[in-house]
Design a protein that fits this description.
Number of helices: 20
Number of strands: 5
Bound molecules: zinc ion
Distance between the termini: 66 Å
Oligomer: single chain
Largest sheet: 3 strands, mixed
Length: about 500
């Protein structure tokens, strides 16, 4: 029964991490402000416990016993895969010294508070010492994990296994070359932007976005939608996968598209094979996080697919605008489907990443990745960041950044010690088009999209992406599902088509 002992130890770790997710959900959705300190300690205790169990003797022995028991079983067997995958990721986790993990966790709380204060006061200098300390720790973590070409590779790999800085630079180069003429063309499209600024009652926004999420295939019997400041998705096994949204009366797309984005993440988690619940294939040991998605980028591919490839498509609005108009008869009385399609796809270069449109979003990511890679390699100094940011924004989008709140201080990531996660947003965009193109090669999927039946697409994703959980690497998953490695071609084709539709 040694494999069983291994599985049950993994299940216990996954249970703890699912409980951490629930505490996190509560902290971001329900918890009164006074709960912050105690909650931080509760989460730290549970994550520490999970780490001790993952790197402890009991699991190590269980892995060795299971290996013995399974010797002779073919490598493709799911049990062999589980044991080898656990051994490998736990070895990586164990390479990061516990003291370093503790220090990073402690700094995170202080640095986030310093960042929030600095952002409010537009005072980068006040945050700089924390950021320097944070980057030092990340450099140490990269060194502990190990890398061959570039220290950034080690950090990126914790979010996107196998990804490297040199590969990212190739992808970025291809995108940059394609995006700049597209952006110039897109800015000429006729758009009635004032449509979106009208008053759309929040309750109706919530009802419409939930209805469409259900039609896409998000299962409310195993999920729920709540309000939050920064929308997110989080799961406690496939049987309880929650999403959150943020609705503002005068910004309709913020509500709708964020919910469909999170529903896309949610469908991924809901679609993972039942056999993988509480297993290695739903546990990220490096980040000590209960999740079924193969990587951060793969996860993002699923949210972007529903948000952008489906939800921002012309056909979607031809089919669904009537219903939106019935929901908001006064606000949308003088608007037609085509005008609405255009306005939700308008390209408007801006300072803020989370508000960026499809054509400018990746440029925000590239800027951040280049800065991160430079910081980690010691080629960029923290004190130079505000000016460097201004320079790069001018280059990328032609904008003059008026202050650091709209510049280098806008994202929470670096204060949280998340270095190397930004590229996964662009990887997700690229993958979303590859998955979508492969799915659309199937007749049932294409005709479903044409008639407003989204179940064939969702079934295709369940079969080819979701159900596998973390049992395949991101690249294996992509190649098996689409027939090719990560490639910008499908994404560039989608963006080009969209710009052409907007011009006609
Ligand atoms: Zn997302």
């Amino acid at each position: 029964m040694t494999y069983a002992a291994f599985s049950s130890e993994i299940a216990r770790i996954n249970d703890i991490l699912c409980a951490v997710n629930l505490l996190t959900w509560d902290a971001r959705v329900m918890m009164p402000p006074g709960g912050t300190d105690a909650r931080g300690k509760q989460i730290a205790t549970l994550v520490g416990l999970a780490r001790e169990m993952a790197t402890g003797d009991t699991l190590q022995r269980a892995i060795e016993d299971a290996r013995l028991e399974l010797s002779g079983v073919p490598r493709g067997d799911v049990r062999v895969l589980a044991v080898e995958q656990a051994a490998q990721s736990i070895a990586a986790l164990a390479r990061i010294p516990a003291a370093l993990v503790g220090e990073a966790a402690e700094l995170k709380t202080v640095a986030q508070a310093a960042w929030a204060k600095a952002r409010a006061a537009n005072d980068f200098a006040g945050f700089a010492p924390m950021l320097e300390r944070s980057m030092d720790l990340q450099r140490e973590i990269a060194a502990s994990l190990g890398y061959t070409a570039h220290p950034y590779d080690a950090l990126v790999s914790t979010y996107e296994p196998g990804m490297t800085w040199s590969r990212l630079q190739e992808l970025y180069g291809e995108l940059r070359r394609a995006l700049s003429p597209l952006l110039a063309q897109a800015r000429e499209a006729r758009v009635r932007s004032e449509i979106l600024d009208r008053a759309y009652p929040v309750e109706k926004q919530r009802a419409f976005s939930s209805l469409v999420s259900s039609r896409f295939g998000y299962d409310f019997d195993r999920g729920r939608l709540d309000d939050t400041v920064h929308p997110f998705e989080i799961s406690f096994t496939r049987s309880d996968v929650r999403i959150t949204g943020r609705f503002r009366e005068t910004w309709l797309p913020g509500g709708l598209f964020a919910v469909w984005h999170e529903a896309g993440h949610g469908m991924y988690e809901q679609g993972i094979s039942e056999n993988f619940s509480r297993s290695v294939f739903t546990t990220d040991f490096i980040n000590l996080y209960a999740v079924g998605g193969a990587s951060f980028g793969t996860h993002e591919s699923q949210s972007r697919l529903w948000e952008n490839r489906v939800g921002r498509s012309r056909r979607f609005w031809e089919l669904n605008f009537g219903e939106l108009q019935k929901t908001f008869p006064d606000q949308l009385a003088d608007v037609d489907a085509e005008e609405f399609f255009r306005v939700v796809n308008a390209a408007r270069p801006g300072f803020i990443r989370v508000e960026a449109d499809e054509l400018t979003y990746d440029l925000h990511i590239m800027l951040r990745s280049e800065i991160e890679a430079g910081l980690i390699a010691g080629e960029i100094r923290v004190k130079d960041l505000p000016d460097l940011w201004r320079e790069k924004m001018k280059q990328a989008l032609g904008l003059d950044v008026p202050d650091d709140r709209l510049g280098v201080l806008q994202d929470v990531h670096w204060s949280s010690g998340m270095v190397g996660s930004f590229p996964t947003y662009t990887i997700g965009n690229i993958m979303s088009s590859q998955f979508f193109a492969a799915a659309c090669r199937e007749k049932a999927v294409a005709s479903g999209l044409d008639t407003g039946d989204y179940s064939p697409l969702k079934t295709w994703l369940n079969t080819n992406v979701h159900q596998h959980g973390r049992s395949k690497s991101p690249n294996e998953l992509l190649v098996d599902a689409t027939g090719s490695d990560l490639s910008t071609a499908a994404y560039i084709a989608d963006l080009t088509r969209k710009v052409e539709e907007m011009a006609s």
